[in-house]
Write a structure and sequence with these properties.
Distance between the termini: 54 Å
Radius of gyration: 37 Å
Number of strands: 14
Strand content: 15-25%
Order of helices and strands: EEHEHHEHEHEHEHEEEHEHEEEH
Largest sheet: 7 strands, mixed
Oligomer: single chain
Helix content: 25-40%
């Protein structure tokens, strides 16, 4: 161990000169380390601060005679630089490089400036306030993570999801594709709620099977999702809002129905409304997002009254795209996508066309932003 140098005598600014104390050091001691030694030696007086907050000044105050600097020591408001001749010591410097000659006897060599108690109290109060704010933020986050039913997603909830995923929205007027249309009958709603008109020959399930000619697609099935209430539910850490719920009907791979895992093979989902309101669009887009997160396929979402209002939603190039079509064209577009999907089951991968409209998986186009939580 290098030999210790002659001690440097230090005084905390504002203390009487009788409180002078000596600190020994070696040639490798830095000012930062010197501060830590002072902190340990004066631990009772400095218990409520961190040692890096100490500020050291080099002085040369003679205690052998009366002089202006010695007199100024008794004034707690004395300016260390102007009244005591102090020179600020940077923490990175070595003490030996500062005191190149032997320190004079019976002199004060270093003044220690301690952060003002009022400022420390203010800083502590700021910390306490920050902790309170953090606790409030955590409480708000937990509140945000409470379950929101997909059917209840409103503008505010959707904005949080869209902002978190960094998605834009684009309404498409048309796209370059020729559709072979056929006359399609409208569904006849009655006065009952949508769910009560599901089954039977006159129900919407049979109507969809008929207009989509589902039986002609050997690899696909029409899945009634109304009773599987958690089909599209998400976990705690996927979206900024925990969603729970399902959709009305989905086109899925037929084998996934038998295996009771239809959510993994959703290709097209249908949200059915007797009359479509603006709030229903948020529900449909939320269903698109949750279905995309679960399915291995790029999902196409359809919001429709099964009459003249058919709205399509899909993900493409960092956007949710939306398109509205008349009934005959809408059904033709759905059937075209079903035909292309069915090719996969016929082992014709080399000839498979891209489903239209072209769409992408959410995980391939966005990176979630935690700052929006």
């Amino acid at each position: 161990m290098p030999p210790k140098k002659a001690p440097l005598f230090c005084l905390v600014h504002g203390d009487p000169e009788t409180s002078v104390f000596g600190i020994k050091y070696d040639k490798n001691t830095t000012v930062d380390e010197f501060k830590e030694i002072i902190y340990i030696k004066k631990k009772n007086a400095l218990a409520d601060i961190d040692y890096p907050d100490l500020t050291l000044y080099q002085v040369n105050i003679d205690l052998n005679t009366q002089n202006l600097q010695r007199t100024a020591l008794t004034d707690p408001n004395a300016n260390i630089a102007n009244d005591l001749g102090g020179q600020l010591l940077m923490p990175t410097r070595k003490v030996e490089a500062i005191f190149t000659t032997a320190p004079a006897d019976n002199h004060i060599h270093i003044i220690v400036e301690v952060p003002d108690a009022t400022n420390r109290g203010s800083a502590n109060e700021d910390i306490r306030n920050d902790i309170k704010e953090m606790k409030k933020d955590i409480k708000d986050i937990k509140k945000d993570k409470s379950v929101v039913n997909i059917s209840s997603v409103n503008y505010e909830s959707w904005e949080r999801i869209q902002s978190y995923l960094g998605l834009d929205y684009e309404a498409v007027t048309d796209f370059d594709i020729e559709l072979t249309t056929e006359r399609t009958n409208a569904f006849q709603w009655n006065d009952l709620v949508e769910g009560a008109q599901r089954d039977g020959e006159q129900g919407y399930l049979n109507h969809l099977r008929t207009i989509l000619q589902i039986a002609t697609f050997r690899g696909l099935g029409l899945y009634d999702a109304t009773n599987e209430t958690s089909l599209l539910s998400t976990g705690n850490d996927i979206l900024p809002i925990k969603l729970s719920g399902t959709t009305d009907v989905a086109i899925v791979d037929r084998h996934s129905i038998a295996l009771q895992m239809p959510e993994k093979h959703i290709r097209i989902l249908f949200e059915l409304k007797k009359a479509i309101a603006k709030a229903d669009t948020y529900q449909a887009m939320a269903e698109l997002i949750t279905a995309d997160l679960k399915s291995v396929y790029s999902v196409l979402a359809v919001l429709t009254d099964l009459n003249d209002d058919w709205r399509f939603y899909w993900l493409e190039e960092g956007r949710i795209k939306a398109l509205k079509l008349p009934r005959d064209s809408a059904v033709a577009l759905i059937k075209r996508n079903m035909s292309l999907a069915n090719q996969e089951f016929d082992q014709q991968e080399a000839e498979i066309e891209e489903p239209l409209p072209k769409r992408m998986k959410l995980k391939h186009i966005v990176v979630p932003n935690p700052a929006n939580l």
